[in-house]
């Protein structure tokens, strides 16, 4: 079922472009050209409200205030042309979840929307599952497509550190400090050696990517 | 003028003086009258008591109650008072008990307060009641009159002379009075009044002169001085006016300065925005021409056009912040800032343009949220400027990384690393010192740093952050912003950036 997003935006041009971008990104946008109170029966199935602060007749924050006073918890992304701290503080105090300043690229909006409605990563108890990779944190067991893989302590810690936040880059410095054996002298070169061994053991099914200027991350897209 | 006469200082003074003096005089006279009456009543009662104690007096009175009590000449016994019989030596007459005023007259009354004397005043029940409580009563007589009446119960208290009324008068100058006998005392009072009115004359004239001076000064935009000579209150007032007008003048000058700054800012801003907008026009025209002649649009021109649009957006944000910073005390609103969220937002802002330019933009944030105390708009713009600078000056296929990490337990750092052309080492210091050297260079300065880095400098110094420029290990530039962390638990819904 597509995720419904309510867009409250008075500008014809901008509104239709946002609607277009959201549709392309797989959402189901509803567009209100004027600001009005969001009724309780409109809330079910709504994953996000995108609210322009400067609407004719209505003050966008009033809509937000009313919405929150009814106890609705649907996330609200506020759009504003004003890059103003006081506005942001006010919007967030009234219960906005995020704030976006114009101008923005459609991709930026979609990315922010996705970040807002994204569900937390799958984690069942002590097990992490990323694509074909499965990590059992308690028994320190790793398998790819069901086949168990033997890892050293450092290799396992390295993989677990990356797998806790799949798709997110982790700096070399952090890995050296938290993953390498503190008793042995370890540096970034040592780390790179461990990573290359880990990659070899995991095979092509799991991608440990090098991130320029930063370190490593666990790829989330299937190779 | 009529109003001025009625509401003027002088007429007010006259009215107030009269309003104060007349009641005062009446009060004085009342007190004076009361005192005279009391003194006379005391003297009368004293005299009659002594007289009635004389044993012969009863006989005399009861003998002729209708005539008893007429005044007798001082010092000499009246014929009626002299009992028949051989003359006998009389004691020396007592000193006159009623030294001034008319000699007192006594009237005898019987038990029912009826007098045989036709000249005796009628007594009322109220007068009678006064005698219930004591053997002597001073009857109520108006304080402004001369009459004093004292009613006495005789020691024997029966017969036609049961009661005696003594009538006397108060006299000007009587002992115990407050005011002198003659109304001459009103003269000095009048003199004081006159003196006040004369003294107030020059004061009124000075206040009028001061009014005129203030009006003149106001008419000329408070530019003139208001003369203040002397050391009294009027001079103080003039000095206060002078200080106020100088303050107004200073405020006006400051306002003029602000307006001038604003006008300059507006004109500079317009200029700064018009250039990239014109470039954008040119790019769009080229694209349209390509389309018209059936050629595929040049992706380089497309990228340049998008870049220009992105640049205009960043420029406008920077100009808005520059306006705040230029306004003197910048309107910073500090609060807890979620640095992880801030970095993520900055990256997502510039990711589309980096992608368009085929520049790999990577970022890293720590697993646990880092927080700091800052004005979120300013700090975000500073980080954004540093990052956009790295993207903008990089070449196709280049790399830019934005890294947020704890520097220590209490410090954080944001690093922007690129493999672009960088800045020659001999110029690094110059870039790093821009903040201290002012911000003359504007958006498209020849070195290409412009307004963005200038704002990064100023924001860093406002927040007490360290801003460092160095050559990156990849040959490009590495910029570092370092500052204090705060407890990330202060990041709740009410903080700026709930990620």
Strands, helices and their partners?
The complex is a heterodimer of chains A (223) and B (499).
Chain A: E1 3-8, H1 12-24, E2 27-32, E3 46-52, H2 60-69, E4 76-80, H3 85-93, E5 98-101, H4 106-117, E6 123-124, E7 127-130, E8 133-136, E9 141-144, E10 147-149, H5 153-164, E11 170-171, H6 172-178, H7 188-202, E12 208-211, E13 215-218
Parallel strand pairs in A: 1-2, 1-3, 3-4, 4-5
Antiparallel strand pairs in A: 6-7, 7-8, 8-9, 9-10, 11-13, 12-13
Helix pairs in contact in A: 1-4, 5-7
Chain B: H1 2-7, H2 9-53, H3 55-63, E1 105-109, H4 125-133, E2 136-138, E3 147-153, E4 163-169, H5 186-219, H6 233-292, H7 299-326, E5 335-338, H8 339-356, E6 360-364, E7 371-374, H9 376-392, E8 399-406, E9 411-418, H10 425-432, H11 450-463, E10 466-471, E11 477-484
Parallel strand pairs in B: 6-8
Antiparallel strand pairs in B: 1-4, 2-3, 3-4, 5-7, 8-9, 9-11, 10-11
Described by strand count, sense and barrel closure, the largest sheet of chain A is:
5 strands, parallel
Stretches of chain A where pLDDT is under 50 for at least 5 consecutive residues are none
Which pair of protein chains has the largest interface, and what are the residue counts? A-B, 35 and 43 residues
CATH architecture of the domain at 333-490 in chain B: 2-Layer Sandwich
The helix/strand series of chain B, from N terminus to C terminus, equals HHHEHEEEHHHEHEEHEEHHEE
- For the residues shown, what is the average pLDDT of chain B? 81
CATH class of the largest domain in chain A: Alpha Beta
End-to-end separation of chain A in angstroms reads 27 Å
């Amino acid at each position: 079922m597509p995720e419904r997003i309510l867009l409250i935006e008075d500008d014809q041009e901008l509104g239709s472009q946002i609607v277009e971008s959201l549709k392309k990104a797989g959402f189901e946008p509803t567009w209100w050209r004027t600001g009005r109170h969001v009724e309780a029966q409109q809330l079910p199935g709504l994953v996000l409200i995108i609210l322009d602060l400067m609407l004719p007749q209505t003050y966008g924050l009033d809509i937000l205030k009313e919405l929150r006073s009814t106890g609705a918890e649907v996330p609200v992304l506020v759009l504003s042309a004003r890059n103003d701290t006081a506005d942001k503080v006010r919007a967030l105090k009234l219960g906005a979840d995020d704030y976006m300043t114009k101008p923005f690229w459609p991709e930026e909006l979609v990315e922010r929307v996705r970040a807002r409605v994204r569900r937390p990563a799958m984690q069942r108890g002590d097990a992490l599952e990323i694509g074909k990779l499965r990590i059992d944190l308690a028994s320190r067991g790793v398998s790819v497509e069901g086949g168990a893989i033997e890892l050293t302590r450092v290799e396992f810690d390295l993989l677990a550190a990356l797998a806790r936040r799949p798709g997110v880059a982790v700096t070399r410095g952090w890995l050296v400090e938290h993953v390498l054996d503190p008793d042995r002298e370890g540096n970034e070169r040592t780390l790179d050696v461990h990573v290359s061994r880990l990659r070899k053991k995991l095979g092509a099914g799991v991608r440990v990517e090098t991130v320029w200027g930063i370190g490593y991350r666990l790829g989330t897209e299937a190779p | 003028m009529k109003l001025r006469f009625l509401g003027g200082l002088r007429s007010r003074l006259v009215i107030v003086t009269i309003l104060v003096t007349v009641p005062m005089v009446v009060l004085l006279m009342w007190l004076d009258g009361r005192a005279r009456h009391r003194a006379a009543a005391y003297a009368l009662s004293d005299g009659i008591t002594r007289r009635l104690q004389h044993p012969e007096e009863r006989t005399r009175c009861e003998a002729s109650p209708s005539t008893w009590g007429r005044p007798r000449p001082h010092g000499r016994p009246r014929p009626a008072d002299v009992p028949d019989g051989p003359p006998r030596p009389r004691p020396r007459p007592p000193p006159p008990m009623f030294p001034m005023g008319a000699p007192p007259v006594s009237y005898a009354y019987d038990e029912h307060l009826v007098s045989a004397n036709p000249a005796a005043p009628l007594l009322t029940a109220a007068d009678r009641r006064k005698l219930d409580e004591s053997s002597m009563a001073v009857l109520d007589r108006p304080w402004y009159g001369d009459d004093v009446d004292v009613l006495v119960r005789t020691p024997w208290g029966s017969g036609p002379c049961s009661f005696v009324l003594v009538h006397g008068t108060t006299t000007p100058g009587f002992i115990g009075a407050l005011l002198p006998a003659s109304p001459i005392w009103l003269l000095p009072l009048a003199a004081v009044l006159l003196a006040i009115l004369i003294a107030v004359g020059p004061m009124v004239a000075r206040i009028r002169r001061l009014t005129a001076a203030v009006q003149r000064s106001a008419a000329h935009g408070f530019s003139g001085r208001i003369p203040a000579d002397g050391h009294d209150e009027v001079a103080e007032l003039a000095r206060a006016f002078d200080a106020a007008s100088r303050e107004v003048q200073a405020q006006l000058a400051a306002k003029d300065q602000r307006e001038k700054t604003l006008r300059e800012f507006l004109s500079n801003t317009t200029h700064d925005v018009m250039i990239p907008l014109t470039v954008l026009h040119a790019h769009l025209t080229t694209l349209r021409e390509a389309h018209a002649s059936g050629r595929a649009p040049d992706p380089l021109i497309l990228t340049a056009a998008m870049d220009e649009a992105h640049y205009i957006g960043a420029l406008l944000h920077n100009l808005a912040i520059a306006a705040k910073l230029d306004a003197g005390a910048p309107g910073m609103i500090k609060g807890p800032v979620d640095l992880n969220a801030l970095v993520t937002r900055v990256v997502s802002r510039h990711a589309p343009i980096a992608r368009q330019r085929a520049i790999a933009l990577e970022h890293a944030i720590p697993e646990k949220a880092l927080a700091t105390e800052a004005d979120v708009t300013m700090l975000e713009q500073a980080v954004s400027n540093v990052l956009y600078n790295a993207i903008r000056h990089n070449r196709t296929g280049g790399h830019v990384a934005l890294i947020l990490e704890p520097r220590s337990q209490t410090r954080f750092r944001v690093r922007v690393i690129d493999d672009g052309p960088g800045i020659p080492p001999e110029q690094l210091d110059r870039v790093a010192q821009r903040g201290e050297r002012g911000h003359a260079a504007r958006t498209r300065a020849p070195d290409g740093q412009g307004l963005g880095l200038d704002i990064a400098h100023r924001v860093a110094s406002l927040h007490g952050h360290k801003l460092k420029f160095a050559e990156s290990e990849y040959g490009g530039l590495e910029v570092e912003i370092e500052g204090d962390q705060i407890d990330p638990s202060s990041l709740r819904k009410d903080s700026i950036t709930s990620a």
